[in-house]
Amino acid sequence: MQKIENDLNNLGARIDFLLDTYHQIRGENDNLKEKIISMDNEILSLKEELQKKESDYLEVSKKLEKFLS
Description:
Distance between the termini: 100 Å
Number of strands: 0
Shape: rod-shaped
Number of helices: 1
Structural class: mainly alpha
């Protein structure tokens, strides 16, 4: 009987450990998702900024070409 109680206690402790680990990993996963979303937004912002600078560059290039001709 004592062995069964010990086995049940050990199983209970293992289950608690696994649940704690699961919740920790899930929390880390949620944090990673938020970081990925933030990075995606930053990438989109940088792409927009790059497109604006490319557009400005083309405009200046055309004006310079017109001025030099």
